[in-house]
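JOB MANIFEST
job_type = single_chain_structure
chain_count = 1
residues = 735
[input]
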Amino acid sequence: MTKLSGQLRTSSPGAVQLAAELLYVYCLVARSDSFSGSKKRALVDQVLGYADGTTPMPSDLSATLETGLVRTGTAYGSYRHGLFRYLVEFVILVKQLPLDERVALLADPLAFTTALKGLDGGNGGAMQRYSLEHLLFPDTFCPALSADSRDAILTAWPQHSGSADLNQSLRLADLYKSLAAERGAPDEFISMWRSPFQWEWSAISDRWSTLGDWTSWVRERISVDADEREYKLAAVSQLRDVAAQANAGDTSWTDALAKVFRSTNLVNFRAYEEFITWIRADEPAARSVTTALWNDPEVAALDTFAQALPGDVLAQQGARLSVSSFLRMIHGVQDQPPWRARYTAAVAKLAGCRTAQQGSPDSEVYDAFLVLLDFLGDLMEHRGERLEDRLDAQSLIWTLAEADDLPGVSEAEFEALGQWRAGKQTRPLDVLPEIEPVQDIPTVSTTTLDDESLADLAAALFVDVELLTAIDELARDRNQVIFTGSPGTGKTYIARRYAQWLAGSDDRVRLVQLHPSYGYEDFVEGYRPSGQGYILRDGPLKTMALRAAADPGHNYVLIIDELNRGNAARVFGELYFLLEYRDTEAQLMYSDAPFALPANLFLIGTMNSADRSIAILDSALRRRFSFVEFDPTRPPLSEVLTRFLAAHAPQHAWAADLVRRANEIIDDPAAAIGPSHFLRTDLTEQVITRVWNHDVLPTLREQLWGQTAQLAALELEALRGQARAGDVDVDDPAD
């Protein structure tokens, strides 16, 4: 990008526009879990900014970048220059042809791939060629960019791979068609990245192998039929009776459905109670919506159901899909089992199985769930341990991810399972030494939050799921992470919401805020005055650690807000050692008792990077935490306010532009304005003016003391004047 910047700085706006549009094409194929929409937009916008007079991305094309088709690898990014060069040469090739030949070329896959033969595919260019082939002719060319994957697929099915005289893309096209015909569905789309094909050409990874070990382990300890299948099959029978009542116009179906929901634990009670409340309030409309789902066996009916619901009913995808997948069990629970967000996402992540992208419709999320179940079935078939059907697979992944009471399981075995759940890739035989039980621990609440996926949480926070996925991976890898950034970037808010999601209950989350007088005695343990003198009291860290140790089946989270306001060395004491060696005990300062930090206790700290009066965080503590920067000038944080306003106050979308322009003037991420000031559903022009003049500007005056010109440019009217001067109606370009 640095090189491209130098090449384009003296080019015409038209050349810059074309470069940005070519990079847009480069971005299209990448799935959001490998290249997020905000990063794609930032890349294209960066190039558009190389010249005045370029046209910004239209909103529909911008939205398209939220998704993609292929999970790209590192070469896709590191060879970006090669893919971009290939696009330039491709456009030159096409533009040199007469119009009629151009039209013919773009209508014929054989002619198209033959024409590309003369372009240089080195330095990543071949990936761009394969991307163009699939984007333009998705019914002919497969979505495979990796040379290794393409070779492995051809090698696995030599009898289907076509004539050796054909180029590789055409041979793969023949292979796909031949396999589809062999399955009796010549028009069916074949995916090499789902059952039953992937493990015919790709090795079973260590992560899947470990999942197989745990699946075998749990099958030996539960009766899938008695513990999991029988009550689900009974629920299906009851649902069919309810559906018959509803189809016959019997209004008592609402009470009967409520009874079925409450008879199982398959749907979060908050979700089904919300749904039941609606169907009782508007029975005719609810009957129409629900019977349509019951009468349509296609998976796409999940999307029709979602679209037909009122906007304030089951608005969160996790809650909605848990209800709709439960209802459509009547189409065959053995093949269409009920879905829940938390355990599905947990096991998919542990196995490395791709999931639906952020913003995907309900049908795609559910289809990704079926892919996971089919993979588990294939995996166990390879191990000689055949599962009965998808319902067996669903029962096993729920048990693996959620069950906290398995018969005959020792504490050491359950500790090993907990470590695997936390992403440590521990196998069942890698059990830990027996752990002494902890006495006198307060009763742990089993109250759970709504069934919310990480994608749901990202949508609620108006950030890319990629950010939360990175946070989740860091937290599970080291158990401790710190969010840094300027005020108003949402560090504490996101920490609290993520902590609730990670723990699964508010009762297992605690927040403490440090300050200069806060010490070890407040945080870990210390003597406190009482009526009879002094008694030893546990601080929040020790309290949460003991609760977590007594409840290894759940995660516990301690949020340490304003971490750099305290004296870290004084607050943490011997915990420096324990933070690094979680499986080792140390003697506590006052009680002199052995103490360890359990693997299911997570620490999340927040630091205000704009507070320059606070000393730099102790280096010994710094290396024990992973850090996530909340920079409001860069994606994904720079897009939060735009997304929020589009959803809640579209008439005030100009406020996001106001903040962006101000941050460009400030030109310092540590002092930048965060979006939190304006994340209000009661936003009006008067509120924006008040917040700007009385919350934002006073802080800026402290940070930019003496910089009169900068401060003048940051006055509200000055910024709004810039916005008005820069407004251009892109649908009515100047002559």
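[summary]
The mean pLDDT is 87.
The radius of gyration is 29 Å.
exit_status = 0
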